[in-house]
Write a structure and sequence with these properties.
single chain, alpha/beta, Rossmann fold, 9 strands, binds NADP nicotinamide-adenine-dinucleotide phosphate
């Protein structure tokens, strides 16, 4: 892998994707930042070239890859950050909303991966970085649908790594804890009128918003991903989270599930 790389970051207009794109560019890499809002005039991250890219539209992904190959002749790194997020009691979540989240968070990433794999195989090298979350390891109330998409990314990344290592392709799954700086535009809620979950939903979502707004600065994740991209042997998993949030993953691993569920339930009460 060359020390200066050509990278595509999908979902780079906001939050962690933007921070990753800026950190990769600051390290001297050639970075293409992809998102829908660049088509509407949003400024690209510092040092990056903007690409109008919608992960639900294969033609925009293909056009992005073609442009990068036309301009740089290679594509070394794909980072998939694009995601949407609707908090809701699972009983009331419209199936269409769950499908929309899967379309962006899982299938969108899969579309990007399928577009870059032929290029990376032909090069005999490449690095694919997929954004999961600590919620890819355990679930919390009212984020069940989002957690399901991130658990799916974990499973997808594991098999992807097993299938593509023989072609010189490395896969890293990133598991951030709560981070500040994500746009409220992508944090939607759905709750029925007179919902029996209303009180629990209010308390739970308040806690979620509080933890996010007091979370790690996005630059921490950006720099951690850029360091991983710079490595000869990148890690298969990259957890970027406070000690307190990491402890959620340890408790999930070691506590009996009934006890873990009670601990989480009381934390979000
Ligand atoms: N923030 C956190 O606390 C946290 C914690 C753990 C994991 N994560 C993960 O980190 C990633 C970034 O999250 P964030 O909260 O920092 O970012 P965010 O502010 O929520 O931004 C979401 C990004 O996804 C893009 N996006 C949404 N739909 C898209 C589509 N159809 N095609 C292309 N791009 C699309 C948006 O760009 P456009 O609207 O311009 O297209 C935007 O750049 C996500 O995968 C998230 O699940 C975040």
């Amino acid at each position: 892998m060359p020390s200066v790389k050509t990278a595509l970051v999908a979902g780079a207009s906001s939050g962690l994707g933007r921070a990753v794109a800026e950190a990769l560019a600051a390290d001297g890499n050639t970075v293409y930042a992809g998102a829908r809002s660049f088509a509407r005039g949003k400024q690209p991250p510092a040092g990056c070239r903007a690409l109008a890219l919608d992960v639900t539209d294969a033609s925009t992904i293909q056009a992005a890859v073609s442009r990068i190959l036309g301009e740089q002749g290679r594509l070394d790194v794909l980072v998939c950050c694009a995601a949407t997020f609707t908090m809701s009691p699972l009983e009331e979540l419209p199936p269409e909303t769950l499908a929309d989240m899967m379309q962006v968070n899982l299938i969108g990433a899969a579309r990007c991966v399928q577009a870059v794999l032929p290029v990376m195989r032909a090069q005999g090298r490449g690095h694919i970085v997929l954004f999961s979350s600590l919620n890819g390891l355990f679930s919390i109330p009212f984020q069940g649908a989002y957690s399901a998409t991130k658990h799916a990314i974990e499973a997808y990344a594991e098999a992807l790594s097993q299938e593509t290592r023989r072609f010189g392709i490395r896969v890293t799954v990133v598991e951030p804890g709560d981070c500040s700086g994500g746009s409220q535009q992508y944090r939607l809620t759905h709750i029925a009128q007179d919902s029996p979950y209303a009180e629990a939903f209010r308390a739970g979502t308040q806690k979620i918003h509080h933890d996010e707004s007091h979370g790690l600065p996005p630059v921490r994740v950006g720099k951690a991903v850029a360091r991983a991209v710079g490595k000869k042997h990148p890690p298969a998993r990259l957890v970027v989270a406070s000690l307190e949030q990491r402890s959620g993953a340890w408790l999930h691993k070691f506590l009996p599930r009934k006890l873990f569920n009670r601990v989480i339930e009381s934390y979000y009460r």
